[in-house]
Amino acid sequence: MMDDEVEMVTIYVMGKRHRVPAGLTIMKAMEYAGHQFRRGAGCRGGFCGACATIYRTKGSYKLQGALACQKIVEDGMYIAQIPFSPAEKKTYNIEELRPDAGVFLEYYPEIARCLSCNTCTKACPQDIMVMDYVQAALRGDVEEAAKLSFDCIGCGLCAVRCPAEIVPYNIGQLARRLYSRHIVGPTEHVLKRVREIEEGRFDEEIEELKTLDREALQERYETRERRL
Amino acid sequence: MRLPYYPGCTLKTTAQNFEESALASARALGVELVELPRWNCCGTVHALAKDDVMHYLAPIRNLIRVEEMAESGLVDEKRVVTLCAMCYNTLKRANAVVKEDQEKMQKVREIMERENPYGGSVQVVHLLQVLRDLDWSKVADRVERPLKGLRVAPYYGCLLLRPRGFGIDDVDNPQVMERLLEALGAEVVNIPFKTKCCGAYHTVQMKEVVAELSHRILDQASSAGADMVATACPLCEYNLGPRQEEVKKLFRGFAPLPVVYFTQLMALAFGLEEATGFEQNDPDPRPALRARGLLKEES
Ligand code: SF4
Ligand code: SF4
Ligand code: FES
Prior knowledge:
Shape of chain A: flat
Oligomer: heterodimer
CATH topology of the largest domain in chain A: Fumarate Reductase Iron-sulfur Protein, Chain B, domain 2
Largest sheet of chain A: 5 strands, mixed
Helix content of chain A: 25-40%
Distance between the termini of chain B: 37 Å
Shape of chain B: globular
Number of strands of chain B: 8
Radius of gyration of chain B: 19 Å
CATH superfamily of the largest domain in chain A: Alpha-helical ferredoxin
Structural class of chain B: alpha/beta
Bound molecules: iron/sulfur cluster, FE2/S2 (inorganic) cluster
Order of helices and strands of chain A: EEHEEEHHHHHHHHH
Largest interface: A-B, 18 and 18 residues
Strand content of chain A: 5-15%
Strand order of the largest sheet of chain B: 2-1-3-4
Structural class of chain A: alpha+beta
Helix content of chain B: 40-55%
Number of domains of chain A: 3
CATH architecture of the largest domain in chain B: 3-Layer(aba) Sandwich
Strand content of chain B: 5-15%
CATH topology of the largest domain in chain B: Rossmann fold
């Protein structure tokens, strides 16, 4: 297909109209339109949660959430980035906590306001059962909350949509920390690796990497699996 | 008989002794209470505002789960059993409202969107009703250790009985717990305040209000010679039980009185002592039970 035959679609970024090639992700389309990402982009692979985006499509009243690096643009899409979701991060010493409902209510008492409206689940680009993990935490089922929230990448979309102003990803993170520290406990292979790091087993390799130039680093990266 | 069972949050946290004793005694009577594979908070309080559709989502979602569960063949009926009086009340009333008000049902459906529409086929009941339907003679037949000489004052509180039309029994003079206790061989102590409010959620902000209300109820039970009070609600249990610390501060000379769930007494009478969980009650009911010779002597 010739370049000038590429099918184009119209998108609106913060209200401004752009013609962009169909098939691009929201992130690439925005860059095509001249935007440069200083916030709101990280891994570009759907893992870091930095690129939370909300949008509406033509003819639909639905406000949808997506990761800009994953979602393909659609004709008539209205787009806004949410590079940061404001939320207080509580500090706690995980060693001192007990894995039960009381912990969640102590640090995030607003979870008792959950209406079971499921808005969070609908907003989640990871297809996580967000409502269900918040509810599991509320009844002290730490294991269930940890397992259901496992794929959370902290994009924040659930938190900006929750009518009860709950920050689900903080709940999920606390659940996973409680689960791994107090229910499963530290596993042998992790302890072994930590010991190795502390004993300086990887120091030499790290020092060497620090001296390499861009090309050499790239070569190492590309051949990483073969060298394992 | 396998019935769907909706636990609610409290049964999984502070009222585990209620759940454990209920499941064990129901099983002893051939009633398998099968927990909903997926459930959320009941909604805690019934929304009285007519346009408050948001607060119907939680209870109705649970009723959808009951329908799904019945369809998958996990249970034999769509009669969902509750233990907590608050859950019973919230689920029962939300169910009644949406069954009657098609417009509201439609709104709930639209907001839920992703769920299967609620078919309105679920019936919300409390375990006490299931027991009554079984027949008291069947309960009595199962008793291994009759609660002989144990004087128990049944206490209902509000949510199992009110508002009129939604209760499990007569709103002014309920008898279902009385019949159960008799079937278990206990002696029923009647107290006029058995349907008075315990203070409910005031326990969070106004402990003294609750302490005063609890004192009236407990004092009546003590004066009538009760060894303990039996309840069917975790919030009543908390307000009448652990809140006695506050009662003591307000009323000099107040003597503590144990408060237990009716299911704990049932488990005890059925010889399922390991499922009673009396060690979780405060004040401790075990000395009173021991005094009546109802606990196995500690080895
Ligand atoms: S649970 Fe919330 S923060 Fe986590 S991925 Fe889903 S929407 Fe993002
Ligand atoms: S959006 Fe908020 S209130 Fe609604 S189910 Fe999720 S956590 Fe609960
Ligand atoms: S940039 Fe990391 S998930 Fe999109």
